[in-house]
Predict the structure of NAD(+) diphosphatase.
Amino acid sequence: MIQALPSAAAALERNCEQRSESGYLDKVQGGPGHRIVLFRGGRALMDANGLAYLRPADAGGHLPAGAVTVYLGRTLAGGNPQLPEGTDLVLKVLADDAGDLSWVPGGTFFSGYRDVGDSLGAGDAAVFIEAQAVANWHTSHRFCPRCGAATTPEQSGWMRRCTADGSEHFPRTDPAAIVAIVGADDRILLASNFAWEGNRYSTVAGFIEAGESAEQGAVREIAEEVGVHLHTTHYVGSQAWPFPRSLMIGFVAHTDDAVAVPDGTEVREARWFSRGELQAAVLSGDAVISRRLSIARALIEHWFGGPILEPGDALDHAPAGGRA
Ligand SMILES: [Zn+2]
């Protein structure tokens, strides 16, 4: 299994059974011990330590009554150095026009995961990702897909019910395959997209279509984007990527094709690297690869056999073990 993904081990006990009981959220919010994670416009409230975990007293009276409220879970031992074990976390999703926010504590600021994800500890990253995923769903599923009537949250924010026909709706996830392609000579094939800077290379990814297995989706996407046929795929791990609602399903896969053909619309270049070539290219700046704690990086390092050194690491030969 690949290691060092942000959410490799659960940081929270989600208490799925209890949270679906009516009144559970009120019970949690009635106590002084819970902490509040605040989201607004897809951004989380942060402070100098990472995610800001507001005390009820900090927020009391200021939160709009209509803010979507979600029970995120209870911290596990070692799950988050910012919080004691057993702390219940409640997400409040503020509307974009939430109005005056001058009450939020000094030194806090709203930030998106793409801007701060690299600097977060694993516990904060897991909470941020869960909050982002469920907040996105609430924002985009306010109306019933069957009849168009309004839906309202139930089950501590993990279900929405149609106010007209009573139908139940749950958070959605779109599966995507992400693949480290390995050739017969054991080199890796990385792609550079038109949307990226010219020297950035990564694994190839694409959405799995309706009616497809993850493996079929991986084989099809790789053929479409870089023109090689995969003859074997090995699942190695996954990562939630709620932008807006993906689950990245990671494979290391093999091909006998030596010539890659970029699709010319999404993929600008597909390039083979031996292990030595990739390490040298990263150190020289000839290639920039995905950041640490991403599944793309984990897949590349799974093939590589260990951490790939970055230019900053090489000066003191520090191990590239990621962030604490
Ligand atoms: Zn309905």
